[in-house]
Design brief:
Arc Repressor Mutant, subunit A, Hypothetical Protein Yqey, Chain: A, domain1, mainly alpha, single chain
């Protein structure tokens, strides 16, 4: 079952269960996917977005909410921080399991070997391979410096 269908099914179930907070988050996810679909159609892609794009959307949404939760905690608004974390929990249901530190290092090494990268100029190629294979499974903000250190 593709991600779009899983989100729709979860949305319908949340309506039946009258789970207001979960329903709200699922509607936000659905709206973000539809926005991306509209943008894709404007660019000439009539099929809309695929699972890779949906994973990217979900990853971005989760990251935004974690940053918001930290900001709310720093501002002393623990109630709002908790709500953001609850939204992250719902979003993460649709994301693949995150790689461990060791698995991430192994994936970086494998990508470098696959490309035959030997200098910092190959960083873009390595990141492209990683994003193609591990979208939604690793934080590329942390992986970028790791690749850079390895190629320096």
């Amino acid at each position: 079952m593709d991600l779009r269908t899983r989100v729709s099914t979860a949305l319908k179930q949340a309506m039946k269960d009258k789970a207001a907070d979960r329903l709200s988050t699922l509607r936000l996810i659905n709206a973000a996917i539809k926005d991306k679909d509209i943008a894709a159609r404007a660019d000439g892609n009539e099929d809309g977005v695929g699972d890779d794009d949906v994973l990217a959307i979900l990853g971005k949404m989760a990251k935004q909410r974690m940053e918001s939760a930290r900001a709310y905690e720093e501002g002393g608004r623990l109630d709002l921080a908790e709500r953001e974390r609850e939204e992250v929990t719902v979003i993460e249901e649709f994301l693949p399991e995150q790689l461990t530190e060791a698995e991430t290092i192994a994936a970086v090494e494998a990508a470098i070997t696959q490309i035959g990268a030997d200098s910092i100029r190959d960083m873009g190629k390595v990141m492209g391979v990683l994003k193609g294979q591990y979208t939604g499974q690793m934080d590329f903000g942390k992986v970028g410096p790791m690749v850079k250190d390895r190629l320096s």
